[in-house]
Each structure stands twice: as C-alpha cells, then as structure tokens.
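# nightly structure sweep
# worker-07 picked up a monomer target from the shared queue
# config: single-sequence mode, recycle default, output format = structure tokens
# input follows
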Amino acid sequence: MVQELAYHDIYAALDFQVSMGADEATLAAPVDRFALSKALMEEAREKAEAERSPAARGTPAVVPPPKADPIGDARAMAKAAATPEALAQSLAGFPHCELKQGARSLVFSDGNPKARLMIIGEAPGRDEDIQGRPFVGRAGQLLDRMLAAIGLARDAEDAADAVYITNILPWRPPQNRDPRPEEIAMLKPFVERHVELIGPDALVLMGNISCQAMLGRRGITRIRGTWTETLGRPALPMFHPAYLLRNPGAKREAWADLLSLKARLRGETPP
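# output follows
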C-alpha cells in the first residue's frame, strides 16, 4: 500500500528540486531545443515580413509599369503594316519618338511607289516640314535637276524613269540638328519595312546619316561612288544635295556617281 504524502511533504520535495536547479518537469519524450529555436526564429521572420508588406499597412501594392521598348514596338508596328499607306499610319501613331511633338508634319515619302530606284535621305528640313514632302527646298530642287540629267524624275509615270524618295527620320529635328543614334535606331525598322514594301531594284543613300543608318558607316567623302549592298539590294552612297550646295566643287564627283547610277539601272557597265 502506497503511503500518502502530506501536502507539506510534497511542497518540501518540490522546493528541494528547485533549489537544486530543476526548472522544468520531466517529459515523456526529449525536447529538441535547436529545432525549437529555429522554428521560433522563422515565425518571427514571417511576422516581421507580414508587418512590412503594403497589405498589412492597408496600402495597395504598387506594380511598376513595364519598361518601354521603342525598337521592339517599332519592329512590331512596322511588320504589321501591309502597305505603304498603313506604314505611314503606323509611323504617325508611334508613341516613342519625341521629334513629332515639335514637328509640323509627318514627312513620309514622295514619288512613284512603283519606281525602280528608291532614294533615302536624312531628315526633313524646314521646307519639308511645312509641305510634308521630302526634298522640296533648295536641296530638293538641286536633286530634281540631278535626276533629270540622267532621265529620272519623281513624278514620272513609267517605273523605269521614276524615283521614290523617303528619309531615315520622318520628323524634322529641332533646328535641323543631326539625328541622334537612339532616334535612328528606333525608326530604322520603319525604313526597312518601307524598302521591303516598295521593293526597288536599287537604293541611293544620300549623306552620312543615311549611310550610318543603313550601312553602319560614315565618311561620305570616302565611301561615295562605291556600290555596296543593304537589305539585300545594291546601294550607292552619294553626296547629299545640301552638301553640294555648300561645296560646289564636289559636283564633279556627284556627276560621276549619277552616271554610275544610270548605267546600273540600265544594266550597263559603269563608266
């Protein structure tokens, strides 16, 4: 028979264990203090993160807008255009080029879209911005005389004698400054699609900006007159008529380039 202990005896036994350093009752299974500590730390971390979240503060989370991709958007918009007219509309709706904010007109093209020859200039000037057509100022008048000298014209009905003209940039840069590299890069997909839709037999790249955009090269005084290729088509770099107005002595080289162009279009050996 188990002897019952009085209350004061039990209390005295417990007090003795406490005085000896015991601070917990013995459990049936061992306690993993390391796992318990890790669990408590994880719980504290999750609680802290929850308190820092916008939802816990009653503030909706702000999702950053997607990063703009002007070149990617230009490629997609240009590819979707099935006609030159649709391409012009796509350009007009292109949202990334700030040049159109200060320009009066979208200068898209001029000439016969069935022409065998396509001329790519640099960017519109003041007269072009006013009229909405490329090459209509003094440089444009000189270009018309140069083309007429070899039997070509932008208003010719016969595709063999016609010329189609466009620019790298469709909007006039402020104060006629040179186009910037990022402007050329974002608008080049439209130029490439433009060439694809027109399908000319040959290209003329007039001036440094056109050569930089389409060939990745500058130095028009070195590369002019030498036939090369871009977009799968023969291309001839030439002096820009504006350069010829400033440097009349270069008209001799320009005439040689025109004769080379005439021979190429006729399938003859260049002089």
